[in-house]
Amino acid sequence: MEHIREIDMLDVMGNTAPGAVQERCRAHLATCAECRAGWDALRQTWDDLGVLGDNSSSVDLLSNITAQLSQNDQTVRIFSLWNLSRIAAAILITAGAGYAAGKFTAPKPPAHAASDVATASYLQFLAPGSSTGLAESGVPADAFNDNEAL
Amino acid sequence: MDIKSLTDEQLMAATAQGRMGEFSELVTRHQEKAFLLALRTLGQRELAEDVSQEAFLRVFHSAKRYRPEAKFTTWFYRIVVNLCLDEKRKAKRNKLFFSDNTKFLDARPDLPTNALEAEERQKRVREALETLNERERIAVVLHRFEGLSHADVAEATGWSRSAVEALLVRSYKKLRKELSPYQNFEK
Known about the structure:
The complex is a heterodimer of chains A (150) and B (187). Chain A has 150 residues and is mainly α. Chain A is built from 7 helices and no strands. The radius of gyration of chain B is 18 Å and the shape is globular.
């Protein structure tokens, strides 16, 4: 004869066991003294716990919850508006700063830009510091016009 | 359609669309169960109120993710249980012991004439429950007071069915041991 498991007895007590288990349990308890003793002990504990079972609470969570939800909603709205303003302000500031930086720190042409071109064209005698000293003398370029010299 | 005739799952679908009326009905239906589950698990009224309130806020915010394949109450109990476990962990970290300041139920004005005896019995049962560890207590609270089968307890907590079976059998044995001296005395 297969005995009833305690966990099944507990579910039967709570009326949560499937119908077949309930029937099998009750039929078995009617014939098995050992299981009956186990059942009675469990039943006593079950009933003892019942003294805490019938306490109704006067709790009303609804008003608190709806208040909190509407508060969160407002916070989210304010937060998104605030965020949008911050993003717009950041874009404006960045653009303004970029414009100002560009205006006041535009690169000036180097002093010897023309000489750099000369160096690049292998006309070293025109470069600053060359032995000819032409770059420093301020001699106009057309002074070296071969045709005119001739 | 009357809101009251809707199932929990239908109310959840409406809540997912941001309909507050349906969500309010859900809160009204389950607030007492949530509160009592938290109260019996945590032992403190204020904490239990905070936990059940937070549980409903989570329900509202995660309504879109809820799938009706899971029974609403099972899904909801899991949220409450997890929040209770979080609170227990926090309390452990803060070295607060619930048993030191546990007040399961506030004194009520409508106590019967044998109020003292009833109070005494409640006190003994509370003390017996306090001898259980938190997992054992949650399993017993869900099984004995929330009317869940051991399979439903497993689903609500996310623990395996065999673990819940072992927990419940062990817990009721412990409770029997704690309460048996008084049982004989009362008889």
